[in-house]
Amino acid sequence: MPHLVIETATAACSVALIEHRTLIAERHAVVGRGHAEHLLPMIAELPHGGRADAILVDCGPGSFTGIRVGIAAARALAFGWNAHLAGFSSLPLIAAAALADHPDWGNVAIVLDGGHGEVFVQCFASPLAAIGPAASLLPAAALAVIGDAPVVGSGRRMLAALAPDLDGHDRLPRAADARFLGGGWQALAPTPLYGRAPDARPRAAA
Questions:
Q1: What are phi and psi of 145, to 5 degrees?
Q2: What is the pTM of this model?
Q3: Cα 33 to Cα 161: distance, rounded to the nearest angstrom
Q4: How many angstroms separate the CA atoms of 156 and 112, rounded?
Q5: Which of 71, 154, 168, 178 is the most interior residue, by most CB within 10 Å?
């Protein structure tokens, strides 16, 4: 069945239609902010208005606002289309694409900008398997975790400032790359994976 993939967890706003691991169409733009204004028009530009039997949405970690925008849109479309809805994580999404591009890599470390000087980091082996949980760490601590693995993601620049010879490259999540994810990586509940505590906290009771 065709899947509509929604990816808004980072500075990218990205949608794709995939079927049987084949990319039918995609729209991808680096917008920074303003995912809510871009997302639905991008979906409408896909064949048949993006309508699909199943919807996959990036649950994070990443931008608090971007994650909420994507999940809210996915839930609304799934309700309106009576479509199956499930989630995935941005970290294995990037890992799957990186390992597909570099079949000679035995493992890879995915590092995304986490805000407040930290990065989201998780390591993966090939074929795609997590090596430990995701964590939000300062760059020096992240370097200690990843060892000599190639580093891919938007947070790589923060690590490269401490280790200029770092292997790998920058990369943002892309909805079309969901075709590289196996089914087990596409079965999260469509709820946010923020990766760290929210910046805003409820005011303590007087």
A1: -75, -40
A2: 0.92
A3: 25
A4: 7
A5: 178
Nearest Cα to Cα of residue 13 among 40, 44, 51, 47 = 40
Q: What is the pLDDT of residue 200?
A: 43
**CA distances (Å), origin 183, targets 21, 86, 166, 179:** 11, 11, 32, 10
- For the segment 8-43, what is each residue's pLDDT rounded down to a tens digit? 999 999 999 999 899 999 999 999 889 999 999 999
Rounded CA separation 50/81 (Å) = 11
- The tens digit of pLDDT for each residue in 129-181 reads 999 999 999 999 999 999 999 999 999 999 999 999 999 999 999 999 999 99
Give the separation between CA 117 and CA 139, rounded to whole angstroms. 8
Residues 12 and 4: their CA atoms lie apart, in Å, by 16
Whether residue 127 has a cis bond before it, omega within 30° of 0: yes
